[in-house]
Amino acid sequence: MKVTILGSGTSTGVPRLGGEGGCADWGLCDPAEPRNRRTRVAIVLESDAGARILVDTPTDLRSQLLANDIHRLDAVFWTHDHADHCHGIDDLRPLRYGRAGPIPGYAHAETVRRLRQRFGYVFAGQYGYPTLVSLENLDTLRLCEGFRVGHVQMPHGGMDSTGFLFDADGKSVAYATDFNEITKGMVDLFYGCDVLVVDCLRREPHPTHAHLAMSLELADVCRAGTTVLTHLDKSMDYATLSAAVPDNVIVGYDGLVVTP
């Protein structure tokens, strides 16, 4: 199994629009370091058998899939319905071509409700266009395309985000983005995972996201094998942060491939 980091940036990406003098705003990130150029977060997991699962449909999805030569998906999962995690959903349309039916999609019940409300045409078709995704509640899902799937609701400010654990080929990858508190349910699900891809917005605490100390704490209490930091903002320079984290922690970047 392998996991590809399609995007590693926060909701505005890095660099951010609207910098001083009309320039791109790199914050503390070195613009000469390609790994500091970050699109919005998503991952793709691929099993040894070739099954591919996408988590989230960010606004940069088309360019991310092209950059990583991904032209087929077997299922899509959503963590929550914030714009940076779902507003690239239309980019699934070409991946529906040639399929006998819609792409299977899964999310927590509240996220299903919100996605259906916002993108009804994706899940029911419209004006002769076919249904793109068959969206279902996660509650009864245990297996998907050869992956065992576990999930947990995580506090994300005034709402929840879904954390996932995917097992295949004797390895496990946990995905925990957009949370601001570590819960027992998260630790129980992620404990002993081979790879933990974890929210790490900045160094200072934040009301809706994990900061560096919280990200490292989750990795430690879960006894994660390798930890990949993601959802990084413009204060998190790749080289500076890489020099500050433990050896088993990787600063994520767009296009990074990790094999457990």
Automatic annotation (TrEMBL):
It comes from the Bacteria. Residues 39-232 form the Metallo-beta-lactamase domain. It holds the Pfam family Lactamase_B_2. Signal peptide: none annotated. Gene3D superfamilies: Ribonuclease Z/Hydroxyacylglutathione hydrolase-like. This is Phosphoribosyl 1,2-cyclic phosphate phosphodiesterase.
